[in-house]
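Thread: quick sanity check before group meeting

JM: Hey all, I'm pulling together slides for Thursday and realized we never actually wrote out the predicted structure for the chain we discussed last week. Dropping the sequence here so it's in one place. If anyone has concerns about the input, flag it before I start.
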Amino acid sequence: MARLRLALLALLCAFAVASCAVPPGRMDGGLTLSDPVARADVAACCRSSERFPDWMVEIAEANIDLTRRVGLIQLRRGHLGRSAEGRAVVEGVLQPLDILLVHSEGRMSGHLIPGQFTHGAIYIGTEAQLRAAGLWSLPALRPYHTQIRAGQIYLEAVDGGVRLAPADVVLNTDATVILRADLTSAEARATLARGLARMGIPFDMRFDVSTADALFCAELINAMYPRLNLPISMVYDTPTIIPDVIVAGALLGEVPLSLVGYVEAVGGGSVRALSANGLAARIAAAWPPGGTTPAPYPDALN
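JM (edit): ok, ran it. Output follows.
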């Protein structure tokens, strides 16, 4: 696991009330979880995923189009997306085929789906990065050269199907954790090819990993990185993949992914990178004992 150490550096501020922030391009700390209490909290997460009564789930499944429309409602733009500094911090460390899982309380989906992280995307990379990694000439990538040059450098499974999207869309969120698989050159080519082969596959509103004709975000990640053996959870009798379980597994060393960094932004422009313990606390807060409603994210609706 990569050993980077997240550091929050104080900036010189013109006003006494200015916020602490992470300088653009700096994310120098590795996320390793050594605190035993934090490890226990993370290990206990995600066990109360069935938070809605069966009758409510049945109504949602019977009215899938309405459920989809509600999930697409955006309450506000993401705090991270509105911060040039925050985006610079994230984009300054991304490498091709990094995985991003995001937290967004500006969207209804962020309130309906349990957990800290409710969506994920795969960073494809810029043309320069792809050339340096030996991936630009990949036959499966050639049809998408124009889109990548136009800034559509993230692959995601969303309403409308698997697609390439720009940073303005993917980073329109409040926080993101960056995960990295240790891939050989051959594995990277195969991983990218598997993802691009799924372009246009419809979104899976039932979040069911047992079907291949539709994909949700974590299912796309699972399809691209089969050797990760992402944990599958049974939720309302449906086999699914919970994003928080992926992050928890990486923190605990149970999923072979390095945690490159975790960055969050709040209303007012404050951007901060959290330690492994801070990330663990975020996950634990999203899964309170007994499945009660978690505390709101700071400045959630500002």
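AS: nice. Residues 36-287 form one domain. Residues 1 and 258 are 5 Å apart (CA to CA).
JM: adding both to the slides.
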